[in-house]
Fold this sequence. Notes:
Largest sheet: 7 strands, mixed
Strand content: 15-25%
Helix content: 25-40%
Structural class: alpha/beta
Number of strands: 12
Radius of gyration: 21 Å
Low-confidence stretches: 293-302
Shape: globular
Number of helices: 12
Number of domains: 2
Distance between the termini: 39 Å
Amino acid sequence: xxxxxxxxxxxxxxxxxxxxxxxxxxxxxxxxxxxxxxxxxxxxxxxxxxxxxxxxxxxxxxxxxxxxxxxxxxxxxxxxxxxxxxxxxxxxxxxxxxxxxxxxxxxxxxxxxxxxxxxxxxxxxxxxxxxxxxxxxxxxxxxxxxxxxxxxxxxxxxxxxxxxxxxxxxxxxxxxxxxxxxxxxxxxxxxxxxxxxxxxxxxxxxxxxxxxxxxxxxxxxxxxxxxxxxxxxxxxxxxxxxxxxxxxxxxxxxxxxxxxxxxxxxxxxxxxxxxxxxxxxxxxxxxxxxxxxxxxxxxxxxxx
Length: 304
């Protein structure tokens, strides 16, 4: 019997409700006491290196942002102000939380307006905000607001693979976008772009061999189909060493605002570092089916 089960057995329901209320109240005031306001957060972004005119790709965990006294809409507005009228804020709006091959195997219908983002709560609020553009792609669409949003998101439906020359990711690389991480996690969509650029030198296919036809509904309500391929669900690479190396080399800026971790790097610097470490043999690729098991929990994530 667990402690929670024991407490429920001993105490009446009314007492348990009061304990929960006390716990939640204490947590709320602790968060407020240790939090910072929007001005302090904006100053931290500037100290990190975010500038007016930037194209800023934001990777976020709203659950880890409780130390910022701001609503999601206020955070979105603050990010927009940090890059100014000439800049653009971009967020992933991937409609899946697992592997892209598994998602395509379900024969999804991608609706520009209605298909939700599963890349985090902030991304879903962002994509629903009036004036936000979104690329038309069944597995790796991005949402964008700002000066280059329309250009960044157009044409993704022409991509034979999610990160090819028609994709927003190639455009972001060409404009040397910056990647801002809000929270502690290892997501980095540009690793897929780096693999795409290196695919002839990777010993295994980075994409699956199945070509899938997907139905789409565009922003204007028109329907069409596209064909695409998913990332190879059997392929694994320990890509996190690139970010760790960039931090040691001074190519990745890191800050902490109360309990929130922030990081910033340039997309081109990341891809260059990825290619450099690949050429040194530091990036190891293998197929899960060949090893039979995953030797380390950090290697368990394959290509989405």
